[in-house]
Every structure is written in structure tokens, then in C-alpha cells.
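Why do we care about 3D structure at all? Because function follows from shape, and shape follows, mostly, from sequence. That is the central idea of this module. The next example makes it concrete: a single protein chain, its amino acid sequence, and then its structure expressed as C-alpha cells.
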Amino acid sequence: MTKLDWIGLALLGGVGAVLRYLVDGWIGSRYRGEFPLGTFAVNICGTFALGVLTGAHIANAALFIVGTGLIGSFTTFSTWMFETQRLLEDGEVAVAGWNVAGSIAAGLAAGGAGWALGALV
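And the structure:
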């Protein structure tokens, strides 16, 4: 990787983090349920986008910069786990279960759909 690749990674990483904050905040301002819909939506969209990149056989520096920088900072495993733990601590066992099962199922579907779409390119 070149110095320019690392700069691109850092810049797109910042963009992805800001986009995550904006999307999560926008969804959170419209949805008041216990289910962490903002994080769910961000992670599923990011999984779809990464599927498109891999399906289109984007590789090397482009995958590193966009996949890791932009999409990696847009999605968030740690927040998903933190919110699941919070739900469990609050006694929302069913919602926590739906968060885990739904995220895995929807993530697999989104990644597969993204990969299929990317393969068409």
C-alpha cells in the first residue's frame, strides 16, 4: 500500500463514520422503539455495499480504501454488540434475540444480494 492509499483510507474512514452518525441519527429521530433500528439499517446497508464490491471483483487498493475505510467505518459491530448487551441488561431478551438473529439473517441476505448485483457489472 502506498502513502496515498493510507490517506484515502483515513479520509474515507472519516466520511463513513460521519455517514453512520447521520443515518443512525436520522432513523433514531423517526423511530422510538426498543429495537436498535439505526444500527441495524447501517450494518445491513454496509453489508450490501461490501457485497457489491466483492461481487464486482474490486480488489487491492480500491477494496482496501473503500471496503475498509468507507464501509468499515460506516458499519459497526461494536455498537451492535453493545446495544444487544444493553437490551439484555434491560430485560428485553426477545428484542435482543431478534437483533442478533435478524442482523445475521438480513446481513447474509444483503451480502448475497449485493454480491449478485456486483457480479452483473
